[in-house]
Amino acid sequence: MTTVDAYVTLDHYCASQGIDDVYVIKIDTDGYEYEVLKGAAEVIAKQRPYVIFELAMYVLEEKGITFEALVHPLVSCGYAMHDLQTGKEITFENVSGMVPAGGSIDVIATPI
Questions:
Q1: Which residues pair with 108 in a beta bridge?
Q2: Is residue 9 part of a domain?
Q3: In what helix (H) or strand (E) does residue 104 lie, and over which residues does it extend?
Q4: How many domains does the chain fold into?
Q5: Taking the model in full, what pTM does it have?
Q6: Using CB atoms within 10 A of its CB, is residue 54 exposed (0-12), middle (13-18) or buried (19+)?
Q7: Per-residue pLDDT of the chain (112 residues; tens, 9 = 90+)
Q8: In a domain, 17, yes or no
Q9: Full residue range of the structural domain in which residue 86 is found
Q10: Residue 73 falls inside a structural domain
């Protein structure tokens, strides 16, 4: 197993490289979606890209992270979330019924 001692957030990378035209963020980080979204909060707020990520409630539970905390950078910027496969909207009220126990779904978050 490899341990990462240093990392760069998407916010820092885009700022340091002068990138101001992010249209899509695809997160495939095997359980680190929360950290990536937190580190992309400025890009999400200012550039409003589409965001695609995997949602596994059991992974959030294992890490002690709530769904609300995970999607805070998106919801606070007026994003809507949908199941990428079915197109059904994901809300705080229906999320637990949409994600299979022990499984995951792919989510697309779009600015409203």
A1: 52, 82
A2: no
A3: none
A4: 1
A5: 0.91
A6: middle
A7: 566 667 899 999 999 999 999 999 999 998 899 999 999 999 999 999 999 999 999 999 999 999 999 999 999 999 999 999 999 999 999 999 999 999 999 999 999 9
A8: no
A9: 22-111
A10: yes
